[in-house]
Write a structure and sequence with these properties.
Length: 173
């Protein structure tokens, strides 16, 4: 992994972690700028999450996309740990959302895998987590993206064989 040119606030944090083959022609007015990198282990995926956390602040919404077992929760754990969250950080698959208090921010972690249709859920389900000035990490956002128009980042994680993961980061601002 080497440096790339990125026209967003995550560029300094990602400078040394992103694929050098990504688009280097982006100027400061272009958006969004997808970038990609590969991690070789869960520890590296978690470390990338910590790197991304440096560019997040209250009110940011991060969409985490990927297949089952891709590493969405691992990346979320890295973000939360970097923000000072202590204790277990696990996927809220059966509870829909967990809220963690860190030393610098409150982190809302949502898992919408079991939410078949957002319209059939309790009104305001996402607002409690995503519109409260907290950093919201949303796994399985597929049907909720229209409800999250102010998302900051979209991160797609895919298997690359063994413990390797290809991670694409797109700044949506």
């Amino acid at each position: 992994m080497g440096p790339i040119s990125m026209s967003n606030r995550f560029a300094p944090a990602l400078q040394t972690r992103i694929d050098p083959q990504a688009d280097k022609s982006a100027d400061s007015t272009s958006r969004p700028v997808p970038t990609s990198c590969e991690t070789a282990s869960a520890a590296e995926t978690e470390a990338l999450g910590a790197t991304l956390a440096a560019g997040l602040s209250g009110g940011d919404v991060v969409l985490l996309r990927g297949d089952l077992g891709a590493g969405k929760t691992t990346l979320a754990r890295g973000i939360a740990r970097a923000l000072g969250v202590k204790g277990p950080i696990c996927s809220p698959t059966f509870t829909i959302g967990n809220r963690y208090v860190g030393t610098t921010e409150v982190v809302s972690h949502l898992d919408l895998y079991r939410v078949a249709e957002l319209a059939a859920e309790e009104p305001g389900l996402l607002e409690d987590y995503a519109a409260s000035g907290e950093i919201a990490l949303v796994e399985w956002p597929r049907d909720a993206e229209a409800e999250l128009p102010d998302a900051t980042l979209a991160i797609t994680i895919s298997h690359s064989g063994g413990d390797r993961r290809c991670i694409e980061v797109e700044d949506l601002r």
